[in-house]
Automatic annotation (TrEMBL):
The keyword Glycoprotein applies. Keywords: Glycoprotein, Signal. It comes from the Eukaryota. Belongs to the peptidase S10 family. This is Serine carboxypeptidase-like 7. It comes from Brassica campestris (Field mustard). InterPro entries: AB_hydrolase_fold (IPR029058), Peptidase_S10 (IPR001563). Residues 1-19 form the signal peptide. The lineage of its organism: Eukaryota, Viridiplantae, Streptophyta, Embryophyta, Tracheophyta. It holds the Pfam family Peptidase_S10. The keyword Glycoprotein applies. One of its GO terms (molecular function) is serine-type carboxypeptidase activity.
Length: 389
C-alpha cells in the first residue's frame, strides 16, 4: 500500500532559485492567468545535481504580508501538481471526456492562494518534473527531511498524515466497524483474538489470521481513499479508467502534464523527464523513520502552531489513528470536542490542545483535500488567520 502524506509548512523565507520563469498563460486555460505563477528548479547540494521542480503562486491578497507556504504531496513520489490542480490551487482540471486534444483548466473558488503565497514542490527527486543530473541513488525519510530543512519552518499543517504506520494501521478495523463495514461479532472476535494487532500478526495465531482474512473479504473492494466512492480507478493504467469514475481526473492530469505545449509553458527542461506520472512508485526509498510522533512533539513544544486534519471517510489513514497519536502526546485539552460549522451546517469536528495544536475532521472528506475543497479552504482560512474553527 502506498503511504500518502500531505504536509504544509509555513515558511519564513524560500530557498533562492536562479532558474525561475514567469508563466502568464497555461495551455488549456482560456486567456491570461488571473494570478502570478512562477516555475523553476531549486538546486540541492554543493553541485546542485538534484533539481527540485516547483510552482510558486503569489497570494491574491497581499503577497508581501501574507505567509509563504510550502506544499508537499506524499507517496512518497507524488507530484505536488496534484495539490495545485486537485486540492487547493487557483485552477483545476475540467472534468470532461478526453478526445485527444488539450485538457481544459478552469478557475476555482477555493484556492488557498487567496490568503497565502504557495510553493508547490515536486519532492523527492523523481517525483513530478524533479530530476537528478547524476544517476539517482536511494533516498530516505531522513535525507528528504534534511533537504526540506533548507526551508525554515514556523508552523505546519498535516492532512490525513502517515505518522506511525505500524500503530495507525491497526485503527482500520475499529474504523471499519464504526462505518458498518464489518459486523459486531467479527469486530469483537478480532479484538479478543488479535489483541489490537491486526497488521503484524504472529503466524502461530491462526485464529487471528483467519479473522483478519474475513475482515479483508469485507473491505478489499472498498475505495480506501473515500469509502463512499466506487473503487473504479485502474491503478496500473489510468487510461483504462472510465470517464464515469471520479479518478478519471488522474488520467486527465497525466494527459495535460505530458503535453509538449504544457511543458514548454511551464519551462520544464527538455530531456530531463520522460513520461510524467502523478505518483512515481519506482523511486528507491528507505522508510527509516518508524514514527514521526516524537518530531511532532518536539516541534509543538518549541512553540510552533499546528493543524492536523482528517477526512472522516478515509480508511487508508483513519482519523481514529490520528487522534490516538495526538492523545499519546498527553497535551491538555484547551477547547474540547465540538462541531465546526459553515453557514450553520456542521462541516466537521475539532479539538484544540495545548502547545498550539488543533485537530479537525472534514465531514464527508477522503484521503486528500480534493474531496471537500471548499470545506478545507474555509478550515485553513480560519486557522491561518488565528481564528477558532
Amino acid at each position: 500500500m502506498a503511504l500518502k502524506v500531505l504536509l504544509l509548512l509555513i515558511l519564513v523565507f524560500s530557498h533562492h532559485a536562479d532558474s525561475g520563469s514567469i508563466v502568464k498563460f497555461l495551455p488549456g486555460f482560456e486567456g491570461p492567468l488571473p494570478f502570478e505563477l512562477e516555475t523553476g528548479y531549486i538546486g540541492i547540494g554543493e553541485e546542485e545535481n538534484l533539481q527540485l521542480f516547483y510552482y510558486f503562486i503569489k497570494s491574491e491578497k497581499n503577497p508581501k504580508e501574507d505567509p509563504l507556504l510550502l506544499w508537499l504531496n506524499g507517496g512518497p513520489g507524488c507530484s505536488s501538481l496534484e495539490g495545485l490542480l486537485f486540492e487547493n490551487g487557483p485552477v483545476a482540471v475540467k472534468v470532461e471526456v478526453y478526445n485527444g486534444s488539450l485538457v481544459s483548466l478552469v478557475s476555482t473558488p477555493y484556492s488557498w492562494t487567496q490568503m497565502a503565497n504557495i510553493i508547490y514542490l515536486d519532492q523527492p527527486i523523481g517525483a513530478g518534473f524533479s530530476y537528478s543530473r547524476t544517476p539517482l541513488g536511494k533516498t530516505s525519510d531522513t535525507n528528504e527531511a534534511k533537504m526540506i530543512h533548507e526551508f525554515l519552518q514556523k508552523g505546519y499543517v498535516l492532512g490525513n498524515p502517515v505518522t506511525y504506520p505500524e500503530f495507525e494501521e491497526n485503527y482500520r478495523i475499529p474504523f471499519s466497524h464504526g462505518m458498518s463495514l464489518i459486523s459486531d461479532e467479527l469486530h469483537e472476535s478480532l479484538k479478543i483474538n488479535c489483541k489490537g494487532n491486526y497488521g503484524n500478526v504472529d503466524p502461530r495465531n491462526t485464529k487471528c489470521l483467519k479473522l483478519v482474512d474475513e475482515y479483508h473479504k469485507c473491505t478489499d473492494k472498498i475505495n480506501t481513499q473515500h469509502i463512499l466512492l466506487p473503487d473504479c480507478d485502474d491503478k496500473r493504467n489510468p487510461k483504462n479508467t472510465s470517464p464515469d469514475c471520479y479518478y478519471y481526473l488522474y488520467y486527465l492530469i497525466e494527459c495535460w502534464a505530458n503535453n509538449e505545449r504544457v511543458r514548454e509553458a511551464l519551462h520544464v527542461k527538455k530531456g530531463t523527464k520522460g513520461h510524467w506520472q502523478r505518483c512515481n512508485w519506482t523511486i528507491p526509498y528507505d522508510h527509516d523513520i518508524i514514527s514521526s510522533v516524537p518530531y511532532h512533539m518536539n516541534i509543538s513544544l518549541s512553540g510552533y502552531r499546528s493543524l492536523v486534519y482528517s477526512g472522516d471517510h478515509d480508511i487508508t489513514m483513519p482519523f481514529l489513528g490520528t487522534q490516538a497519536w495526538i492523545k499519546s502526546l498527553n497535551y491538555s485539552i484547551i477547547d474540547d470536542w465540538r462541531p465546526w460549522k459553515i453557514k450553520d451546517q456542521i462541516a466537521g469536528y475539532t479539538r484544540t490542545y495545548s502547545n498550539k495544536m488543533t485537530f479537525a475532521t472534514i465531514k464527508g472528506g477522503g484521503h486528500t483535500a480534493e474531496y471537500k475543497p471548499n470545506e478545507t479552504f474555509i478550515m485553513f482560512q480560519r486557522w491561518i488567520s488565528g481564528h477558532p474553527l
